[in-house]
Amino acid sequence: MIKYFKDAQAELNSCIENVLWSKPVTVDGQIRTKHGVCEGVEYDDFEILNIIVRSDIHSIDYHDGKALFMSLNVKAEIEVACSYFDEKNSAWDAEEQDYLYKACGHIIEKHEIAFLAKVVCEIENERIGRKTIKPLLQRRLVLDRATLKDRFPLDLSAMSKFYEHLACKCGHYITVNLIDYEEDKTVTERGMGAETAHHVAYEDFCPNCGRKFKISGAIYEYPSGCFNYKDINTEWDAKN
Ligand SMILES: [Zn+2]
Q1: pTM as predicted
Q2: Strand intervals (E) in 64-145
Q3: Ligand 1 centroid from CA 170, angstroms
Q4: pLDDT tens per residue, range 149-185
Q5: 147 alpha carbon to ligand 1 midpoint, in Å?
């Protein structure tokens, strides 16, 4: 049983990941105390960057050589980029009774949720064949103080963010902020000022199936502070 599970684990995890991607989500940055007071930040918007699913067998519920019913313990790590209205850094115009400038703050939050998933699969030639997976979850995912594991502010001035989205063959999706992996930059003077080429190199492996990948190339910023174009190449390891 363990063997069947190990063979199909990356696939089962990516199926669960896909269910999570399709769920409606609420990200709540506020804390409600006993006295009804709200603290924390109210987010205006958010974007899920990464979902990583890990699972192990909770129980084998039925097995007869042709079919396997099992329950999995699942843990999913969800990384979210959140934005909020930053009142402290905004400029209020008392005469106009309006903001001259509204600042936007950015925070990365990492959440972890744990749940059970029911799996029903057919066994064909000693392998897991057709299967259905049902994560036991509420209709809407709520990410709040109870699921929060880590939280840090992000400075998004100028070109400090460039998300590259990758899809591994196993079904797992990966988002990388390439600017975090800038090796070097070259500046060329052009008509509207400086053009900056951010040269990036990044190597990692898929956390779901272990396949290695390499990203290299450059992101061009021109005029200053604006994304112009990218010349990015992703190579996946042919093995596994
Ligand atoms: Zn993978």
Answers
A1: 0.84
A2: 67-93, 98-124, 127-135, 141-143
A3: 4
A4: 999 988 776 677 888 999 999 999 999 999 889 999 9
A5: 25
